[in-house]
Write a structure and sequence with these properties.
CATH superfamily of the largest domain: Glycogen Phosphorylase B
Strand content: 15-25%
Strand order of the largest sheet: 3-4-2-1-7-8-9-10
CATH architecture of the largest domain: 3-Layer(aba) Sandwich
Structural class: alpha/beta
Largest sheet: 8 strands, mixed
Number of helices: 15
Shape: globular
Number of strands: 16
CATH class of the largest domain: Alpha Beta
Number of domains: 2
Radius of gyration: 21 Å
Length: 387
Amino acid sequence: MNVLMFVSNPFTSDPRVYNEATSLIQAGHEVTVVACDSEREYPPSDTWDGIEIIRLAAPLPTRHGFGGPLWNGFGLLSWQWQAYRQALKLNEERRIDVVHCHDLDTLAIGVRLERKLSMPLVYDAHEIYGYAVTRTIPRWTAGIFFWLEKQLVKHVDRIINVCEPQRRYFDNITDKPISIIMNCKTVESPKYEPPASRGDFTILYIGILHQGRAVSMLVDAVRELAGVRCIIGGFGLPTYVRTLKEKCDTVANADFVSRVPFDQVMPLTKKADAIFFMVNPQDRNNRLALANKQFEAMVCGRPIICSKGTYSGELTEQEQVGLTVEYDREALKDAIIKLRDNPELREELGRNALHAAITKYNWQNEEEKLTKLYGSIKEGCVNKHDI
């Protein structure tokens, strides 16, 4: 089948979209991704491991909120219109069999195409969008997104979520078939390998940078600790990233490496002693989510530090793959010290992490669910929760 995906970022380092697209290609499908390059930084057409990429630039400046919204109403609507027209053009050249929309800010495009062309529509909700946008807009405004999502999901054929709490949310607003496909990673080796000894205990965070993730707290914690170094990389709203970098510049044992190329994330993870993923439990979107960090740590055999009162913390405790602490600087310092001073504990948790990846949390399992889902679409099977 010819699969057309929409994503509201430039699609240069989105591991979920990449994994799903390449898995579908390996299963015999063709995949085209229509992406948004609002800053006009990347080639308008590209190919990445067999994925055809078409990048469209909105004519008005936009800024990326996190959870994926292109937040500037005119810019978003303009990009959606361009993407819709591009899809019609592609359909004339080669019939599109399935439309796959990543997150709410692309779903309106898919619904319009479904109405016009009567093709199957998959809604891949990476998060609960209404919760995510409250980081950058007033809470009362977020109600518009909750309402909009409820209207648009009436037109989809399949919903994909990344974890069980998100599935429960969508179960309450729709009776559409729902599948869970987690952001797991490919297990490259079943053998546990400790990080090479370099002296300082190194804790790593690479990912989205915003107030809901306690990266600034990590910098404050390590500045007072001997024999510890933190490495921070990623991307986010320019003002927040700039402030975070300036803070790191004042701390001798905090290194800010900015955006990390897609193919360098896992090598850096393997070099680290521990992975950091503390989020504010008051941020409802992050509280219910499982991030890429969780699964990157697992396949690399590295312990993770997570927040209590979150789904990621619950999984960490359940699988005994790291430490969970209160959302507090002193609690974080204690956890870092505990791991720094106990290499046996680090290895035990790391081995547990790798075992969990091998036995349950790996992309091979998620890929099988994805290809089964697409097989059911091809056969016209849409029975609720059959995957």
